[in-house]
């Protein structure tokens, strides 16, 4: 089942591309299976239910109270949020030589231009190596 959770509300995902199967690394899949056995059972069968409510967490307080604080403590020079992980993931895919079409599918973008125009920043090491 494919669902989205935004501000504590759940719904179907927005696009057909979001419904595509997403392959997981087998080691990561094993970690998730082990976690699922240990986590609280929830009505929606969530992987990370709030143990107090057994519903999905609200992402905004987690971002505000933990992610941004972690970014500041790490002296990253700017606030980080959930989308930071998407940008970083795309950079890692590109840095690892993953073909652009595969990146598009893994990012679940309808258009490859979204993958490259919005998320297309390369890591500094890759840019430095290419320039050398």
TrEMBL record:
A GO molecular-function descriptor: DNA binding
Record keywords, A-Z: DNA recombination
Keyword Secreted: no
A Pfam family the protein falls into: Phage_integrase
InterPro entries per the UniProt record, alphabetical: DNA_brk_join_enz (IPR011010), Integrase-like_cat_sf (IPR013762), Integrase_catalytic (IPR002104)
Origin species: Edaphobacter acidisoli
Transmembrane feature ranges: none
Any one Gene Ontology BP term: DNA integration
Residue span, Tyr recombinase domain: 21-123
Highest taxon of source: Bacteria
Phylogenetic lineage: Bacteria, Pseudomonadati, Acidobacteriota, Terriglobia, Terriglobales
The protein's name: Tyr recombinase domain-containing protein
């Amino acid at each position: 089942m494919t669902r989205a959770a935004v501000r504590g509300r759940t719904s179907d995902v927005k696009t057909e591309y979001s419904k595509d199967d997403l392959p997981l690394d087998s080691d990561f899949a094993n970690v998730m299976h082990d976690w699922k056995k240990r986590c609280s059972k929830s009505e929606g069968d969530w992987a990370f239910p709030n143990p107090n409510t057994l519903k999905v967490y609200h992402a905004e307080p987690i971002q505000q109270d933990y992610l941004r604080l972690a970014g500041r403590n790490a002296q990253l020079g700017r606030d980080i949020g959930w989308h930071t992980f998407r940008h970083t993931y795309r950079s890692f895919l590109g840095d690892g030589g993953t073909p652009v079409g595969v990146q598009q599918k893994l990012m679940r973008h309808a258009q490859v231009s979204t993958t490259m125009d919005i998320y297309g920043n390369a890591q500094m090491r890759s840019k430095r190596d290419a320039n050398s």
